[in-house]
Design a protein that fits this description.
Length: 295
Amino acid sequence: QDAGWKPEPDKHYHSAPARRSVPAHAHAPERKPNTHDYSEYISKCAVALFGQSGSAALKYLHDRALTDEVLSKARVGFDERFFFVHLHKEEPAIILPYNAEGTYYGARNLETEKESRAYGKPRIEDAGDEPIFDPLGALTDDSAPALFVCEGQIDALSIAQCGHAAVAIGGTGAGKLTAALTQNKPSRPLVYLADNDEPGIRFAKRVSEELAALGIRHIIRTVPDANFKDANDYLKAAPEAFAQFLNQCVEDAQEAPEPEPREQELTFDLSSATAEDFRTRAVYEWIVDSADEFT
């Protein structure tokens, strides 16, 4: 049974001609480490989530089909007056710790409509660069038969709730994933579960090439129903089918061949490049090389 979208074998997905070839990880950006201790704040927020003030936030998370068990394990919390910089105001927010050490967190308001959603995180000057979302230590859990990687934090919690090791990139910035996997190369296969939309699938193709260049055994999947955008959508609508789908992904990943580290063409579609892309020298060198053609 097909477990979702799969990249075509031996096909390279590029949107512009490259002038040179480099290993995919050769230009990974230098990342500012996470050294600030937010553990006291995270602990207070985790208590608040299950208190009277956090009732609306807890209902929001329950409506996303997340259980108290997974929320407690991940120390998900609530801040009644979180200041969202781009909104220039305080709003109630769900607090999502990124690791067990308490050195980073993310925030999101309780709005369900996409146009009204707001996200926040500590300043880079204080907390360092945003790391991989890994509150349950999945990156270093070698007992898991496979490691799931997805875009959204709620999606990672949805997968973890079903008993699988899962982390989230927190968007479509490949730099943090490359950095994390270079530091902690997984001994088990990886399942990249892409969002079921055009940007998500486009990014998944790029991720697949980078994982192959790092020599990481992996498969790429989306949820098999086009009506669902991501893992949490599938969990909410069909929890049993979602659990079966994840189990099938693990079986498929176990059969994935071991890739040989290879050279990857350096190409970028600047119209869809993310802020993370522009923090790498790879984009800079592509721009310089392309400019040479016009001088």
